[in-house]
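Dock 4-nitrophenyl phosphate; give full complex structure.
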Amino acid sequence: MNYKTVSSVLFVCLGNICRSPSAEAVFRHRFESAGLPLMLDSAGTDAYHAGEQPDRRSAAAGRQRGYNFSGMRARRVTDEDFEQFDLILAADGSNLLDLKSRCPDHLAYKLDMIVESGEVPDPYYGGSDGFELVLDLLEQAADRWIERLAR
Ligand code: 4NP
């Protein structure tokens, strides 16, 4: 993968209401600050929450740190996403396996994890600490990806 040619990134989790919208918001903020004008979006491997706004707890924790969630609506990953996006980043190993099972073999090189050799744990059924941990991990991950993608 030639990271220097990446111009679009899709973030993927299970429901597209907690981790991947938070990733989209955090990465957009950090990429803009770094002068990296990439097209960002997020999606879920499942459609349980399709059409919903980001989880209230995720959005509140993110807004507290200055991130913007306006206009976001959950959607499921589509077949076109594998063609359209240059890089598709999964929140956890289960999300990556789901993506691999749907992605055409010749496009599988686009799949990777948001956190290098680690996971962004699902905060949905836990307490507020989980949402803060998600943001901490995403902020670190954004800085790592900026190093890779910076032109
Ligand atoms: P996400 O979190 O994958 O980070 O959006 C979840 C959202 C909803 C559910 C699980 C995880 N759920 O089971 O409804």
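Observed: The two ends are 14 Å apart (CA to CA).
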